[in-house]
UniProtKB/TrEMBL annotation:
Protein name, per record: Phosphoinositide phospholipase C
Ranges that cross the membrane: none
Catalytic activity as recorded in UniProt: a 1,2-diacyl-sn-glycero-3-phospho-(1D-myo-inositol-4,5-bisphosphate) + H2O = 1D-myo-inositol 1,4,5-trisphosphate + a 1,2-diacyl-sn-glycerol + H(+)
Keyword tags: Calcium, Hydrolase, Lipid degradation, Lipid metabolism, Transducer
C2 domain mapped to chain residues: 653-775
Pfam family for this entry, one: PI-PLC-Y
SUPFAM superfamilies: C2 domain (Calcium/lipid-binding domain, CaLB), EF-hand, PH domain-like, PLC-like phosphodiesterases
Organism of derivation: Rotaria magnacalcarata
Residue ranges annotated for the PI-PLC Y-box domain, each copy included: 531-646
């Protein structure tokens, strides 16, 4: 064990013993409690109070978003202002943010050492959870025994058949036929007492979760494979090499250092037996298999009164003294390099980042200050952190005069409670560049008086300092927008500067529908000089047709379009829209009638070249996964380069409504939906076992849109198998998003979406692939889909043109 590992172990052990922390409430009340980390390290809680109905809250590690030191929260700010705590005590304070930054608990430690123990320990556990996949958990005894403890209602430390059956339906979401259950139970019950000990339950769990779908695959690609059982089938080096080259077209990703000491990922084809052996050494947990150059499948071997080899113990794969799990092939296919996403595209900023900003799609949020609907609730600075940490690079602030002379952010003429403009800027600053080095755009809707506009300018400059872009870049060509590379670690303010353009002798006449989301009240007609000086590259101006814009606007001018107006323009004058996006930035936003914070489909805007399709990040609807999928590309940096035929639309005559153009590499995507693993229920309080089916949809140009779905598998969320094949002909492959949704069929109500994953077609790896599914709120899950992917070129002999 290294010194760092020993230090973390010591920290966690101290947290398990518990420490006294003071739980602070915004009303000034203080509640001393002994907080502790649970022995299994899956949640934090505190000892119950003496109240009759007092029940301690549980803070699950999987729900924690951030642990924050000091007074960096609105509650602590208010407590300092009210004098409830002393400003000198900041070194004792920390805040745990959870539930996607929607909830928080504010704590004071007795000294700095204890405060730091909690910060280090919780941060480690959150990071550890984020990197755990199904591959790690299925070999982790502690995780498996959590199910055992939940089912052991009488605390006998054994499970009866009845308790075991209830566990299968209540926790593992599967109804097993009686004969199959009896066979598995008998095989695991080594003591033959009719009860399962914890050790025997681990064996039962692994027997239950053996992958018969992978067994069928191994039989196809292993010599004499059909003569082997699921327990003894294996691949040798040559068989594995052939599988990786011919079936998977597998690439290995290697991290290298560039000449300027930056990390870079390169891809290497698998062509040599030595490379296959390296994979066996990495993923095969059985010493004998490794030494023979063999990769096993998914084997649970039982030992009676016999110690395991020290080699396996060192590998930390000893489940107990009686059994050993060996699952090399499954381990390999569940690893990140082998999932459906090309790792070099998802983990590395690989695109050219030196082109003008208008050549990129930009991850954009609408009314970022809201966590829920558009009419009520409160404006919350933490909503900005949620969006930024989800990859957003353009956020919105609707600014109004505050009663105390300081600007506020709220949704005008609604019941939304305001928050201060200053608190938003201050609390978002630490997270501005955590997910990406590329510029953050503040879209200001300015409803403020000149006096409070001046205060806005001061706040921006004081808090953001050198991060705030205050003047044009000296080396940039003023005819073009600067590039994301030019604007690294910079904050750009987007707003209306004046009614007058930079072109001489031209005045823009403002109309009611010209500017952002101002439904009931207009924006400020005058802009205070100091604030206006910060509006540089993205000066908001009314949208006009192409000829007018070309004669009166520069590349520094940007326009916003409401959903309904955009839809009309895309029907009536699509060429004007597309051509304007080749040299300046356009933004769309949801229509004013979407008071439930629902979203318009951003793909409709993206196929016309619109760079900023603003979405309500607070909504967990069926649209947000399209955004998460789109910006999974290019290392998740929030900027994705548009296809060349959109960048050069003046030369290509691109029009998404013209199916006869042949500007992209047309593809035939063939997907086989094989199986799923560990599907959760849609909500914790739903007791029905899922009846899952998979919906696959392609989103892109109108000619490419298509939806398919599998049959329903009844009463099986643990390991349903479909083996259904679907084909999609895709003309514009660079615009296409492939969206996988897993639903729970219900004969009487709407089907619930259990999990999803979305990604660009260009990021898909071919062959047999696991899809690591996301929850509806975009959190990671331990659920997976297993699919086969085939992508072939498709040529229509009747259509010829230049591809870009």
């Amino acid at each position: 064990m290294s010194n760092d590992e020993k230090h973390i172990t010591d920290v966690l052990n101290q947290l398990k013993l518990g420490t006294i922390l003071i739980k602070q409430k915004i009303n000034g009340k203080k509640y001393p409690r002994r907080f502790f980390l649970h022995e299994h390290e899956d949640f934090i809680s505190y000892e119950a109070s003496r109240k009759t109905f007092g029940k301690p809250r549980i803070y699950r590690i999987k729900d924690i978003d951030e642990v924050r030191s000091g007074f960096r929260s609105r509650t602590f700010d208010q407590l300092v202002i009210n004098g409830s705590i002393n400003a000198s005590e900041e070194d004792l304070a920390f805040t745990i943010m959870y539930n996607n930054h929607r909830n928080e608990v504010h704590l004071m430690a007795p000294d700095v050492t204890i405060r730091n123990l909690w910060i280090v320990g919780v941060h480690h556990l959150v990071d550890k959870h984020a990197h755990k996949s199904q591959r790690h958990l299925t070999t982790e005894e502690k995780w498996i025994l959590n199910y055992f403890r939940e089912a052991d209602k009488d605390r006998s430390n054994t499970l009866s058949k009845r308790e075991c059956r209830k566990l299968l339906t209540d926790s593992l979401n599967v109804k097993v036929p009686d004969a199959v259950f009896e066979q598995l139970f008998r095989k695991a019950d080594k003591s033959q007492e009719g009860l399962l000990s914890p050790e025997e339950f681990v064996g039962f769990f692994h027997l239950l979760t053996q992958r018969k779908d992978l067994y069928e695959i191994m039989k196809q690609y292993t010599k004499n494979g059909r003569s082997y059982s699921i327990e003894n089938i294996h691949m040798n080096v040559d068989e594995l090499l052939s599988f990786l080259r011919i079936v998977q077209n597998q690439k290995l990703t290697i991290n290298v250092k560039t000449h300027d000491d930056r990390d870079r990922i390169i891809c290497e084809s698998i062509e040599k037996p030595e490379q296959a052996q390296e994979l066996i050494d990495k993923f095969e947990l059985g010493k004998e298999f490794r030494q023979k150059g063999q990769l096993s499948l998914d084997v649970c071997i039982f030992f009676i009164n016999r110690e395991l080899t020290s080699d396996i113990q060192l590998c930390n794969e000893r489940l107990n003294n009686n059994q050993l799990l060996i699952l090399g092939f499954r381990n390999m296919l569940l690893s990140s390099n082998f999932d459906i996403v090309k790792p070099s595209y998802a983990r590395h900023i690989y695109q050219n980042m030196t082109r003008p900003l208008c050549d990129y799609y930009i991850n954009t949020s609408h009314n970022t200050y809201l966590f829920y609907g558009q009419l009520s609730g409160e404006s919350n600075p933490e909503a900005y952190n949620q969006a930024l940490l989800a990859g957003c690079r353009a956020v919105e602030l609707d600014c109004y005069d505050g009663s105390d002379g300081k600007p506020i952010v709220t949704h005008g003429y609604t019941f939304v409670k305001p928050c201060s403009f200053e608190s938003i800027i201050r609390y978002m600053k630490p997270n501005l560049f955590k997910t990406s080095p590329y510029p953050v755009i503040l879209n200001l809707e300015n409803h403020c008086s000149l006096e409070q506009q001046k205060e806005m300018g001061r706040i921006l400059e004081d808090i953001l300092g050198d991060q705030l872009l205050k003047e044009p870049l000296t080396h940039a060509n003023p005819r073009y927008l600067p590039s994301p590379e030019d604007l690294k670690y910079k904050v750009i303010v987007r707003s209306r500067k004046t009614a007058k353009t930079t072109k001489p002798n031209t005045i823009i006449k403002l109309k009611d529908d010209d500017d952002d989301d101002s439904i009931f009240d207009s924006l400020s007609k005058k802009v205070q000089h100091n604030l206006g000086e910060l509006f540089i590259y993205l000066q908001n101006v009314p949208y006009r047709d192409y000829d007018y814009a070309k004669n009166n606007y520069s590349s520094w001018h940007s326009s916003s379009l409401a959903e309904t107006r955009f839809e009309k323009l895309s029907r009536d004058d699509p060429t004007s829209l597309i051509l304007q996006t080749t040299w300046r930035i356009l933004r769309t936003y949801p229509g004013g009638l979407r008071q439930d914070s629902s979203n318009a489909n951003p793909v409709t805007a993206w196929i016309y070249g619109i760079q900023m399709a603003a979405l309500n990040f607070q909504n967990e609807d069926d649209i947000m996964p399209l955004c998460y999928g789109k910006f999974l590309d290019n290392g998740g940096c929030g900027y994705v380069l548009k296809p060349k035929y959109l960048i050069n639309a003046l030369e290509t005559d691109y029009n998404p409504l013209n199916p006869k153009l042949n500007l992209d590499w047309a593809k035939v995507l063939t997907l086989t939906i094989i199986s799923a693993q560990f599907l959760s229920r849609s909500m914790a309080d739903i007791f029905d076992i899922p009846d899952p089916y998979v919906m696959i949809s392609v989103h892109g140009a109108p000619c490419d849109q298509k939806i398919e779905k599998t049959k329903v598998i009844e009463n099986n969320g643990l390991n349903p198998i479909w083996n259904e094949k679907f084909s999609f002909h895709i003309k514009y492959s660079q615009l296409a998003l492939v969206y996988f949704s897993v639903y729970d069929h219900d004969s009487f109500t709407l089907d619930d979406k259990l999990a999803y994953f979305c990604l660009p077609l260009t990021m898909m790896q071919t062959g047999y692939r696991h899809i690591h599914l996301r929850a509806n709120n975009n959190d990671l899950t331990h659920s997976t889909l297993f699919v086969h992917v085939d992508i072939q070129d498709y040529d229509d002999d009747n259509i010829t043109s230049t591809r870009f």
